[in-house]
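Prompt: I keep going back and forth on a fold encoding question. Comparing notes only helps if you start from a blank page. Show me how you would write down a chain together with its backbone fold. Please set it down just below, with no commentary around it:
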Amino acid sequence: MIRIGEFSKLVQVPVATLRYYDQVGLLKPIEVDRFTGYRYYSANQLPRLHRILALKGLGFSLEQISLVLAEGLTSEQMRGMLR
């Protein structure tokens, strides 16, 4: 498990962004320490984060990204969302 600060440095995404992605349900930590509130991430979460960042770079809103990740939309459906 990797604490949020270390994960942030590893993926070059600000801690505030990771916290926001947690808040909106895009990228939940694998564990949150119930005493300290520290968020912990795993290397297994890298593909999901990379997909989020790639879709954001293509112009998708976070709401649209949430739909894409939840529903596994096809490329054609995703193109339609950008129009």
